[in-house]
Amino acid sequence: MDRLAIKEALLQSLGIDPAHSRILVVGLGKTGVSVALFLHRLGIRFAVVDSRRKERTLLDELLQEVPDTPVFTGGFHEAAFDVATHLVVSPGVALTERVIEHARANGARILSDIDLFACAVDRPVAAITGSNGKSTVTTMLGNMAEAAGIETAVGGNLGTPALDLLESHAELYVLELSSFQLERTSRLRAAAATVLNVTADHMDRYRDMADYARQKQKIFAGQGVMVLNADDPVVAAMREPGRRTLTFGLTEAADFHVQSIDGREWLCHAGQSLLPVQGLQVTGRHNVANALAALALGRALALPGSAMCQALREFKGLAHRMQKVAEIDGVTWINDSKATNIGACVAALQGVQKKVILIAGGDCKGADMRELAPAVQDKARAVVLLGKDAPLITQAISSAVPVYPAEDLQEAVKIAAGLANPGESVLLSPACASLDQFKNYQERGEKFIAAVRSLAA
Description:
- By secondary structure, this protein is of the alpha/beta class.
- It folds into three domains: 3-111, NAD(P)-binding Rossmann-like Domain (Rossmann fold, 3-Layer(aba) Sandwich); 116-314, Mur-like, catalytic domain (UDP-N-acetylmuramoyl-L-alanine:D-glutamate ligase); 323-456, Mur ligase, C-terminal domain (Protein-Tyrosine Phosphatase, Chain A, Alpha-Beta Complex), CATH 3.90.190.
- The chain has 18 helices and 20 strands.
- The strands form four sheets. The chain has a six-stranded parallel β-sheet. A six-stranded mixed β-sheet has the order 15-16-20-17-18-19, sandwiched between helices.
């Protein structure tokens, strides 16, 4: 779509008038920078505000291309919000911030980068959300489309911000979307969309689970194909009358399901075998469900079955997601740092065959950690805890399994090494966010890998 057409779409859909609108980009992370550069390329004036004094690299990136950008850091300056007609709010910023609520009450329109993207895209979009598995399914689907010879751009909440993908001139866009992105998005109309599952997460940002699920459900706006998890009652209840719907699940009641044929488990569609479960390089029942979800989305997009199965056979998993780091003295070390909520940790525990020493903890984001206890009791022989909410988790699970405190990740690795027996696994699956001690889950995972390799040395 050319720039004139995009500007017209922004005017018609979002009321952005380059001559009169005053756009405030709230948050100077990767998403905020992508928004700022997108607006600059269209010749739309904007200012940027961030409550923190951000890393110089992101600010320098912006100022190098747009040197006269008005930038306010170190706090949310009320004057900037008072004059804004539109706020493009980055996912990391809560809409309950006082200055944002005040600006909205005064008539400012709240937008997301996905709203801007939706006005600028003229190719099909597949959209994926869920409490767990969305990065894996997004990557699987992107690989399927590439295997089918379709030029595909993959990003959103995963990797490249959505607006930066527009520079690729792709034939298909595959977006991972978080609840934070969806709660402030109104214009996206995906050709195929899914909510993979809904389990407790971000309860520090939502009133309750029903509120959290409502934000996820916004991904189904429009008339595209709904892909629903038949095994999750919250997701299954999102079905809308009159919409084309495909389901996935581990039981044969779903369109895409698992079926036993001649003693082997197969991924199937409507009873037709597609790929043996043993043909997947990723392990765990949650990854079987992820593969079924990707197949359903691919079917909704009319991807050829051969390409989809080829991509699944070749997919080796994501970094920091059930990633085997090493085997030392008969003990397998697994990095699942991306498990930032209870549901992801439970799935990881269930995906390991033998007993584990679990390393967990961090910022539990208001979740009820008692929900972790049954899986811990079933699969873990001991738990090593670190991070700010370690005392809370200890209280929740100490009756189920022995708990050992650690000051930091390096100490946690040493304690776990002393506890683990040959044939067992040490699993880093924190069930918590990382921001109390690390920049992100990637840094947490890398420090775990370094500590394990140091142990091996």
